[in-house]
Amino acid sequence: MADQKKRKEAAWKSRKQEQHPHGKIKSLKELSSEYEEKPTTN
């Protein structure tokens, strides 16, 4: 019983660590350069 629980937890942790649903997090420099390129609609 305990072995199965450990296996489930290990699998869950590895899945959580592998997730990159939106790609890598951009640096502030990248974000600011993107922000400057886009014209504002206000």
Question: Would you mind describing this structure in some detail?
Answer:
This is DUF6254 family protein. It comes from Paenibacillus amylolyticus. Pfam families: DUF6254 (PF19767). The structure is a single chain. The longest helix has 17 residues, at 2-18. It is built from two helices and no strands. The protein has helices at 2-18, 28-37. The protein is rod-shaped and about 60 Å long.
How many helical stretches? 2
Tell me the total number of β-strands.
Answer: 0
Shape: rod-shaped
Radius of gyration over all CA atoms, rounded: 20 Å
Distance between the termini: 60 Å
Q: How much strand?
A: under 5%
Report the uncertain regions.
none
Percent range for helical residues?
55-70%
Structural class: mainly alpha
Mean pLDDT: 76
Largest sheet: none
H/E series: HH
